[in-house]
Queue: 2 jobs
Job 1
Amino acid sequence: MAREPILGNNRDSDGGDEDRDLRPQRMSEMIGQREVFERLKIAIDAAEIRGEALGHVLFDGPPGLGKTTFAMCIPRELGVSIQLTSGPVLKAPKDLVPYLTNAEERSILFIDEIHRLPRIVEEYLYTAMEDFRIDLVLGEGVNARTHNLWLKPYTLVGATTRAGMLSGPLRDRFQIREHLGFYSVDELTEIIRRSAKKLDVDIYNDAAVEIATRSRDTPRIANNRLRWVRDYATSRADGRITLEIARAALQMAGIDALGLAPLDRKYLDTIIRVFGGGPAGLEAIAHTMNASPDTIADEVEPYLLRIELVVRSPRGRVVTSKGFQHLQMREPKADGPRLF
Ligand code: ADP
C-alpha cells in the first residue's frame, strides 16, 4: 500500500517532483483554461513587442489546476529566466532581498502560496512591485543607514489557493489576475491521453474517460490516478490500459465512481452513522474520525460540498439525499424537513 498517499485526496503535495515530467512546457500545450490562455498571450505579446517587463500576475484557484504550470510557461514564452520561491519560506524581508536584487531585467520571480507571506514581507513588496525600488538597511545601531536600491524591471508571478487572504494593497499591485477553474471530463481525458503518451503507455479511449471521470475535475489528480493505473497494468496485465484494467485498479485504490477516496466515504459515513446525517460540527466529526479538522476542511470537504453530497449550515455539516444515495444508505424518515 505504499501507493496510498499519491492516490488519497486533493493534497497539494500529491505530485511533488513527479509533476515535473508531465507538466506542459509551453502554454500552447496546456489543455483547457482557454480564456486565461488568450488573455495571458495578449499581455505577453504586448510586453514582447514593447520590450517591457510583463505586468505582475496573480493566479488563484484550488490546488492542482495549473497555477504553477502557467507560471513556469511564462518565462519560456518570454525567453527570460525564472526564480522560484514560496510564501512560507520568506519569513522576513531579508529573505526576499536576494531574489529581488538577482532578478534580471524582464525575468520572472515566482512566489507560490503567496498568501502565506508574513505581513511584513508583503509590505516590503509594495514598493518593489510598484516602483521597482527597495529600502536596504545597512549597518547597525546608530550607524544604521537606509539605502534606496533600484531593481531591474521584473515580473512577480504569485500563486494562491486563497486570494482572499492577501491584503488589498498587495492584490491591487497585480496588473493581471487570473482565476483557474475546474476542468471538464473531456479536457481531463485529453490531459490523460497526452500524459499516457509521455509515460509511454498505451491507453484505450474509454479507459481515459473512466479515469477522467474519477479525477475530481483536477489535472494533478488525473495524472496521479493515471500513474497508479499504469503501475497496475504493468504488474497485473500486459501494460496496456483497458477499461477493465482502469476500473480494477481504481477499485483496488478505493476510488469510487464519483472519484471519492476512502477518507471521503469515511467522513460521510461518520456523519450518517454517528450524527444521524447531521447537522454536525467539523471538530466533532474530525475527532470521531480520529483525523485533524484541518485535513478534513482542506482535503475532504471542498469536493464533497462542490458535488453537493454535503451542505454547510449554521448548525454544522449535513449529508444531502444525494450523499445518502451515494453510500447506498437510507435517509432517516423525519416528520418534517430536516432542520439545517
Ligand atoms: P497548481 O500549481 O495549481 O497546484 P500545477 O500547475 O502544479 O497546479 O498542476 C499540477 C499538474 O497538473 C501539472 O504537473 C500538470 O502535469 C497538470 N496540469 C495542470 N494544468 C494542466 C493543463 N491545463 N493542461 C495539462 N496539464 C495540466
Job 2
Amino acid sequence: MDQRRGLLIILSSPSGAGKSTLASRLRAWDTSIRFSVSATTRAPRPGEEHGREYYFHSREEFESMVARGDMLEHAEVFGNFYGSPKGPVAAAIDAGQDVLFDIDWQGGQQVRNSSLGKHVLSIFILPPSIAELERRLRSRGQDSDDVIDARMTKSRDEISHWPEYDFVLVNDNLDDTFARLQTIVSAERLRLSQQPALVDTVRNLNKEFEERT
Ligand code: ADP
Ligand code: 5GP
C-alpha cells in the first residue's frame, strides 16, 4: 500500500485575488502535485494552450462529457461552462499524488460532496481590499473593461462563500501567503485519513509488544 493518499487541494477566490499565481508556485514547490486541467467552453486567452491551462470545447462537446458522467463537478461561471474531468483524479490520489483544483465555489461544493470528499483540502483566497482586487485584475492585462466589470460584480458572490472552506488566506504579501499555503498543505498530508499505511505500522508495533511477552 502507498505510504500516503493524495489530497484534492481546492483553491477558490474571486477572480484576481491570486489563486493561479499561488497554484503555480505550489506546483513549482512540489512537482509531484498534479494540476486538474479543467474543460471549458470559454475561448482561449492569448498564450493559453489546449490541454495545459484548459481543455477548450464547444458547448455541445461539453454537454456530452457531462451526460457521459465524465465530470467530477461542473458549473456555469461568467456565462461559460467549466468542469473538472473525473478520470485522472481517483488514480492520482490512490497513487499518493495530490491533485490541485482552481475552481469556483460551486465546484468546491460539488467536490466536497462527492465520494472523494474526505480527501479534500479546500482553501479560499481573499484579496486584502476590493480596490486591490480591481488593481490586480487590471494589471494582469488579460481582460477587456467589460469582462473586468463583470468579474468585479461576481466577486461579491464568490467572497460570500468563504466560510465553506477549511482555510482562508488573505493574499496581501505573496511570499507570506505562499508560506502559509505550504504550511497548510504539509500539515494536511499528515492527517490520519491520508495515511492508510499507519494501520500496518501500528500492527507491527503491536506484534513487537506480543513478542516481548
Ligand atoms: P486569479 O487566478 O485569482 O484570478 P491571478 O493569480 O491571475 O489571480 O492574479 C491576478 C494578478 O495579481 C496577477 O497579475 C498576479 O501577478 C497579481 N498578484 C497575485 N498575488 C499578488 C500579491 N500578493 N500581491 C500583488 N499582486 C499579486
Ligand atoms: P478563468 O476564465 O478566469 O480562467 O476562470 C474563471 C473562474 O472559473 C475562476 O473562478 C475559476 O476558478 C473557475 N473555474 C475554472 N475551472 C473550473 C472548473 O473546472 N470548475 C469550476 N466549478 N470552476 C472552474
